[in-house]
């Protein structure tokens, strides 16, 4: 604050003023006289002197005069108790700053002080200005001269600069603009028309603003960029599309700065437009190409990876990532062997290593249990722009299916070969030229000819020990006609030198619509089968004989029993009759001698009574007759048995079926006689029929026994009811018919279609093999070309009908 | 025998009947014969008169032989039942085993037929008491010792059944032995031989037949021991087995032929079979018998049996075995083992001596001492006491068998 010198000869005034001013922060110095004031003034400078007018040594006015003269920068305010206007005028003349009338009031004093100080400040400045003005004018004039020169120079430069600026602006490959907050803008280095195709007139006519040109879908991004710029330092870079007047789409890059006014509102926007359409197009092309490439890369089902020289995966496609069970990001940078094979180093034979070494493609087929497949892995070298090899493109193709198919095919081939060798049938394949191309193990064993001896040979040139005259023409015919052929009972020589039989089937090898390419000969050694068949047939015959044996034994035992009994009776009778004869002789001799003693007659009569001659006379002829009958019965049975079984009869002969049936019912009598009566109605006109008598008798026997068993099911000892078996024969067109009917329960419908099946039987276990009807069917149909059928009525009985052709060659007529 | 033997012949073949009638014309004095052609007619005859022996065919229309004999066994048990058949149908024969006393095969000669019929009517004379006769004639199986019965059932059903084992088991049981001998000695299975060795009999029958007989025809049965003490049954078995064993040894020692040795053994085994029959069928009477014998030791068993049953166990056993057609020497030895006669050393002698040695009534220690009921002359005829030492030694060689 300003320092104030208070000059008054009265001490209370000095104290009062000091207290007023010190309170307001002024520095106060006091002087009780003018002289003291002069001392004080010379000792230091004061901004203000409060000076009493009336002081003993020197008047205040004089002091004021001195101060104003000597210290022009010091303001002086006079104080006096004298309210004398002249004095005041004199003081004002002196140039004092104020005049205070005692008694001094505080506020008046302070206002006067403040004013005086203020005025002093102004006067000091004024004084300073006035003192410097002329110098300034001079200096300014000179300066002005210099400025004018400089200005001229600058003007020239500016002009140049402007020209180059204009050139620059017009040369710039961009449009520089200034925009305003209302989105109107002005192109500074060209016209909007060049950029947009809209003339200024168009714009004003259409009332277009810049955003109206922006492609609507980009607008939001533009605004967002603006907001972003406002939040920051005002600079922005934005890319968007505008639609020009002629409808073109132009990509712009818009770089600039938003300038704000003092109020923080957008003052203007300065910026440049770059037409980046071409760049954008190129970019889009690249993006599209990249996307296409990536899509393709990912779409390939093969496992593709780009692997660098350190085996690190640089890129991989989706197939690979999925197969590995990782996401791409996780796989990239990993070492492929670690990821794929879970090993610490590349596997042996790794094609990648190979390619890295020789810069060529490599491939490897391998099964990867980790990836559950079999793969063909190929690696192609990958170089950078400079041609340095930087890695490989690694393609793994899952060929599991193909591999498996190939494996299966190989397996199938192996199996086929094994099968061909392991089948017990002989399998020979000849090509169209008749050359043997396949010759299996069974062929080798059956004919004792190794494959290497016959393979490639013509079938007709080989020494296969079969009936060549049967097989070879059949093979040629089969190939020629392309039709399968069966040859049964082809004779051949077995390895032990004995004769055997083959069952041969010939099958043409032929693809749809093509010529026959060969013949597959399948043959089976059926010698054992033929032997077994013969044995089985014999066995069945034995079985039926055995079945009959008990009955036949009974049939024979009965007559033997009574023939024996009768003979014993006849023996005894003869003894008795001889004895009687002797007694009678005695009578005769006595009569001849003339006298007949009564005791002789008596003896004779007694003997006659003893031997019961009447009984003997009655019984002996009957005994003889019945014995002869018995003997005849036995002979008949024995004869029938012989006829029935026809031992050794292998060929078909013409047989009187009536007679055959008679002998069959004779031998089987015991099988039915307890349950059934027999009715026979045999046609006298029946022609002889060619057949195997033994086998045909067996058929009749089977049917007869079945009939008896059927009746046995419905008759019982309690009701003493008997059934009837009816056998009749009659000639029919081209053959004969034999009907054997029973009065049994009939055949239930549900088994009617099974009764001719082998081993099918309704009888309890141990009673019959279940083969009877099956064999009968085989004999009638297959061996005789006849038919065997039945008619059945449940509850009433069944009739089997056998039809046999007279001419066995026309047997198909009866085939069922 | 005061009346004629009543014999009924059944056959569906009239010429057989006529032949039989003519052949047996010579027997008309002894036999009262009837000839009918079927089972029903036969039962009609039964209803009209007593029939001692029925001889029937097996397979006949209507009622067959088995059915007829079963009916007769049930209704007329005293009648001796004989089959005369030309059949060899095993199934039918197995069914016939039970109700048939004897089985004859056609053709059968007159002598065999007459002998068989005559023998059975002779047997009838053994048993005077109707009830006993009925009981015995009705029996189709004797009871076996339960443990042996269990063994034989196990054996025939075991996977590795053996003839040897079966023979061994059968030979140790009087009931089984008797039944098996019946089957082979009667010509059920066409084995016209007199067989006395059970093992041999088993072999002849064959495994399948044995199995069928045991399992299907149930020819064996276990003793129902509720009525009798185990001690009695076991004692009887042990005594029978030992007697058979000793009788065979003595027979061998006396240089009898193999057949006679077999007869001796079998007769020894079977000599008390009558006790078995009585015990099985008349247990109350047997209990009474035991009481009487205990109370009056001085009374001879034979006499008391006569009193209670009207027959001795020897007669009952012999009757049954005779009905079953066992060889005569066996039947005779069984019949007479308490009343032997004759001077030759035979199966009867072997059984008698063995029986007495084992029950202690005869001993080499005091050869002079002979049992009261024994015939001293008979024994001396067998050269007792000269043989006493030798036989006593043989006795010592036998051992009581644990059952």
Which sequence of strands runs across the widest sheet of chain B?
2-1-3-4-5
Biggest sheet layout of chain B? 5 strands, parallel
CATH architecture of the largest domain in chain A: 2-Layer Sandwich
Runs of chain B with pLDDT <50, length 5+?
A: none
Order of helices and strands of chain B: EHEHEHEHEHHEHHHHHEHHHHHHHHHH
CATH architect. name of the largest domain in chain B: Orthogonal Bundle
What structural class should be given to the helix and strand makeup of chain A?
A: alpha+beta
Mean pLDDT of chain A: 83
How would you describe the shape of chain A? rod-shaped
Name of the top-level CATH class of the largest domain in chain A: Alpha Beta
Terminal Cα separation of chain B, in Å? 44 Å
Which fold does the CATH topology of the largest domain in chain A refer to?
Heat Shock Protein 90
Largest sheet of chain A: 5 strands, parallel
Mean pLDDT metric of chain B: 84
- CATH 4th-level superfamily of the largest domain in chain A: Histidine kinase-like ATPase, C-terminal domain
Major sheet of chain A: order of its strands?
2-1-3-4-5
Instruction: Give the number of helices of chain A.
Output: 25
Determine the CATH superfamily of the largest domain in chain B: Hypothetical protein af1432
Return the CATH topology of the largest domain in chain B: Hypothetical protein af1432
């Amino acid at each position: 604050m300003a320092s104030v010198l208070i000059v008054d000869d009265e001490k209370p005034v000095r104290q009062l003023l000091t207290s007023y001013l010190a309170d307001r922060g002024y520095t106060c110095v006091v002087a009780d006289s003018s002289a003291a004031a002069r001392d004080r003034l010379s000792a230091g400078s004061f901004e203000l002197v409060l000076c009493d007018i009336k002081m003993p040594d020197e008047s205040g006015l004089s002091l004021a005069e001195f101060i104003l003269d000597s210290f022009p920068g010091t303001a002086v305010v006079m104080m006096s108790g004298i309210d004398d206007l002249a004095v005041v005028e004199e003081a004002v003349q002196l140039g004092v700053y104020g005049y205070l009338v005692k008694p001094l009031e505080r506020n008046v004093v302070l206002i006067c002080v403040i004013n005086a100080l203020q005025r002093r400040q102004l006067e000091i400045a004024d004084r300073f200005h006035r003192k410097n003005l002329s110098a300034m004018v001079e200096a300014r004039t000179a300066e002005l001269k210099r400025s004018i020169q400089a200005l001229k120079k600058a003007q020239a430069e500016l002009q140049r600069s402007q020209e180059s600026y204009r050139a620059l602006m017009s040369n710039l490959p961009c449009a520089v603009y200034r925009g305003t907050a209302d989105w109107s803008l002005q192109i500074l280095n060209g016209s909007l028309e060049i950029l947009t195709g809209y003339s200024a007139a168009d714009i004003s006519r259409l009332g277009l603003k810049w955003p109206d040109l922006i492609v609507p879908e980009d607008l939001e991004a533009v605004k967002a960029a603006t907001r972003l710029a406002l939040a920051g330092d005002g600079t922005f870079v934005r890319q968007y599309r505008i639609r020009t007047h002629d409808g073109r789409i132009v990509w712009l890059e818009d770089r600039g700065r938003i300038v704000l006014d003092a109020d923080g509102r957008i003052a203007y926007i300065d910026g440049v437009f770059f037409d980046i359409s071409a760049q954008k197009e190129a970019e889009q092309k690249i993006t599209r190409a990249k996307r296409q490439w990536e899509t393709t890369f990912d779409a390939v089902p093969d496992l593709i990876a780009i692997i660098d020289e350190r085996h690190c995966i640089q890129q991989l496609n989706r197939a690979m990532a999925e197969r590995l069970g990782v996401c791409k990001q996780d796989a990239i940078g990993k070492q492929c062997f670690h990821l794929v094979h879970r090993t610490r180093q590349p596997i042996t034979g790794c094609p990648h290593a190979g390619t890295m070494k020789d810069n060529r493609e490599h491939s490897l087929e391998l099964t990867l249990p980790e990836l559950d497949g079999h793969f063909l892995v190929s690696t192609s070298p990958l170089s950078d722009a400079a041609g340095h090899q930087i890695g490989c493109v690694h393609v793994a193709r899952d060929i599991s299916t193909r591999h498996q198919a190939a494996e299966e095919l190989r397996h199938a081939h192996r199996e086929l070969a094994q099968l061909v060798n392991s089948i017990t049938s002989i399998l020979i394949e000849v090509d169209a030229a008749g050359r043997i191309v396949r010759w299996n193990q069974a062929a080798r064993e059956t004919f004792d000819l190794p494959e290497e001896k016959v393979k490639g040979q013509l079938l007709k040139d080989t020494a296969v020990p079969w009936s060549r005259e049967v097989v070879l023409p059949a093979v040629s015919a089969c190939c020629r006609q392309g039709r399968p052929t069966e040859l049964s009972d082809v004779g051949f020589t077995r390895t032990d030198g004995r004769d055997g039989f083959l069952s041969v089937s010939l099958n043409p090898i032929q693809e749809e619509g093509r010529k026959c390419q060969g013949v597959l000969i399948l043959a089976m050694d059926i010698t054992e089968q033929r032997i077994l068949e013969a044995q089985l047939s014999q066995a069945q015959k034995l079985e039926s004989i055995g079945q009959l044996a008990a009955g036949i034994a009974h049939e024979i035992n009965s007559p033997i029993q009574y023939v024996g009994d009768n003979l014993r009776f006849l023996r005894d009778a003869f003894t008795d009759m001889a004895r009687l004869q002797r007694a009678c002789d005695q009578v005769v001799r006595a009569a001849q001698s003339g006298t007949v003693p009564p005791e002789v007659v008596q003896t004779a009569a007694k003997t006659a009574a003893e031997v019961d001659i009447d009984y003997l006379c009655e019984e002996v002829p009957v005994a003889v007759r019945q014995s002869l009958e018995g003997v005849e019965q036995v002979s008949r049975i024995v004869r029938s048995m012989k006829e029935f079984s026809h031992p050794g009869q292998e060929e078909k002969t013409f047989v009187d079926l009536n007679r055959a049936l008679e002998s069959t019912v004779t031998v089987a009598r015991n099988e039915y006689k307890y349950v059934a009566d027999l009715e026979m109605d045999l046609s006298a006109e029946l022609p002889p029929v060619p057949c195997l008598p033994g086998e045909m008798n067996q058929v009749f026997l089977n049917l007869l026994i079945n009939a008896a068993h059927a009746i046995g099911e419905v008759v019982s000892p309690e009701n003493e009811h008997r059934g009837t078996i009816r056998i009749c024969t009659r000639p029919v067109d081209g053959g004969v018919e034999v009907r054997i009917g029973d009065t049994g329960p009939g055949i239930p419908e549900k088994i009617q279609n099974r009764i001719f099946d082998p081993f099918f039987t309704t009888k309890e276990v141990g009673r019959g093999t279940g083969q009877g009807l099956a064999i009968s069917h085989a004999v009638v149909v297959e061996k005789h070309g006849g038919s065997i059928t039945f008619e059945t009525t449940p509850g009433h009985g069944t009739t089997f009908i056998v039809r046999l052709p007279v001419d066995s060659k026309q047997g198909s007529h009866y085939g069922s | 025998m005061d009346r004629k033997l009543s014999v009924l012949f059944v056959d569906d073949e009239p010429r057989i009947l006529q032949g039989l009638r003519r052949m047996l014309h010579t027997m008309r004095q002894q036999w009262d014969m009837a000839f009918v052609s079927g089972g029903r007619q036969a039962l009609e005859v039964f209803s009209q008169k007593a029939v001692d022996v029925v001889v029937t065919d097996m397979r006949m229309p209507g009622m067959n032989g088995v059915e007829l004999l079963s009916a007769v066994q049930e209704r007329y048990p005293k009648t001796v039942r004989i089959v005369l058949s030309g059949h060899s149908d095993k199934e039918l024969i197995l069914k016939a085993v039970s109700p048939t006393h004897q089985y004859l095969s056609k053709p059968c000669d007159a002598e065999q037929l007459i002998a068989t019929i005559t023998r059975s009517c002779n047997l009838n004379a053994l048993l005077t008491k109707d009830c006993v006769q009925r009981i015995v004639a009705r029996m189709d199986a004797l009871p076996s010792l339960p443990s042996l019965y269990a063994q034989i059932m196990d054996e025939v059903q075991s996977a590795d059944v053996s003839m040897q084992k079966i023979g061994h088991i059968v030979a140790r049981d009087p009931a089984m032995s008797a039944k098996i001998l019946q089957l082979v000695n009667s010509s059920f299975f066409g084995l016209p031989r007199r067989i006395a060795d059970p093992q041999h009999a088993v072999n002849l029958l064959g495994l399948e037949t044995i199995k069928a007989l045991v399992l299907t025809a149930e020819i064996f049965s276990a003793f129902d021991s509720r009525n009798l003490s185990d001690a009695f049954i076991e004692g009887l078995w042990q005594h029978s087995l030992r007697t058979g064993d000793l009788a065979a040894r003595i027979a061998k020692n006396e240089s009898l032929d193999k057949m006679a040795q077999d007869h001796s053994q079998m007769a020894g085994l079977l000599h008390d079979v009558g006790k078995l029959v009585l015990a099985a069928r008349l247990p109350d009477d047997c209990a009474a018998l035991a009481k009487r014998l205990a109370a009056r030791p001085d009374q001879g068993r034979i006499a008391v049996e006569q009193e209670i049953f009207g027959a001795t166990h020897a007669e009952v056993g012999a009757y049954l075995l005779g009905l079953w057609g066992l060889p005569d020497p066996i039947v005779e030895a069984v019949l007479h083992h308490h009343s032997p006669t004759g001077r030759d050393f035979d199966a009867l002698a072997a059984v008698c001596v063995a029986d007495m040695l084992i029950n202690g009534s005869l001993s080499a220690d005091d050869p002079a001492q002979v049992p009261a009921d024994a015939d001293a002359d008979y024994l001396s005829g067998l050269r007792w006491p000269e043989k006493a030492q030798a036989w006593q030694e043989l006795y010592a060689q036998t051992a009581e068998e644990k059952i």
